[in-house]
Amino acid sequence: MRFSDVPFRPTRWLPGGHLQTLFSPLFRAKPSLERQRERLTLDDGDFIDVDWYGPKGDTTRCAVLLHGLTGSSNSLYILGQQRALAAQGWQSVAVNWRGCSGEPNHRARGYHSGASEDLADILKQLASRYPHKLLVAVGYSLGGNVLLKYLGETGQHSPLQAAVAVSVPFRLDHCADRISQGFSRVYQARFLRDLRRYVESKQRAFQAQGRADELARLTSLETLDGMKSFWDFDGRVTAPLHGFANADEYYQRSSSAFFVPAIQVPTLIVHAKDDPFIYPHSVPTADALPDCVTLELWESGGHVGFIEGAPWRPRYYLEHRLPAWLGEQVTPTALAHPAQAIAS
User: Is 43 a catalytic residue?
Assistant: First the structure.
């Protein structure tokens, strides 16, 4: 475990993982950004919408941002990071996973924690179109799991120069158990409500659009009623829609913890021990991390929280730490000597 020269100091007025997790979504003012939306067509004919922000140009440093479960490019941590990156001269493109941009996607399948094939498709398109861009990626929660899985699968064969993963559910089976305990059940109930709405909105859209085959795939699923846990949802919906036998197989084949040892791209992982979604023992140990991966494991910070400062002027650590670390990785010296690009 390694740490930055400027450590994260959790604010005293938000003690514990829950308050760190809840403050931003409940009380943070939404950053206002003028972004440009683009629709990308995937290999299977479906689409993903992305939102561009920051300096333009073929040689610009560009960060691909990946949101978490039931989030979107409008999630506050995405907007804040896009603004922070632009202030440091970065262009960024915020990905909306399938069906998360405000319009249901065209396939019965959606997005999930192991959908690294969609990330691979997006990066392939960006690298082909902009061969001189310096590409990095930042993934939060589910997006971080997808990113680490992709990095492990591709090894050296990735257009990414560096990557950051925040608050990652490294073991999806562990996470499904953890979020069913104590106050974390409040988050689980919210996620399950939003996931059910995600499926139901696609059912209505497919019926209105006459997409009979895709509608049939959704209506053939087990009932959405009575779901009380992620094990329920992933067993009834995620697994059958995405080629897994059951929830357990989905969790085993999609958990990023099993892919981290194969990563060969400079990668920073930022995590908090008091994350209310994830057991501390789910985090990979130091001996499981390759030399190119840096783990910053803080005592506090919650889930995608990491808030410092005073109540009247909160400071979002990730929006300072991540651009600074990424800037170190894509300097001409670092790119010429990849072995030196590992985080300090």
Answer: no
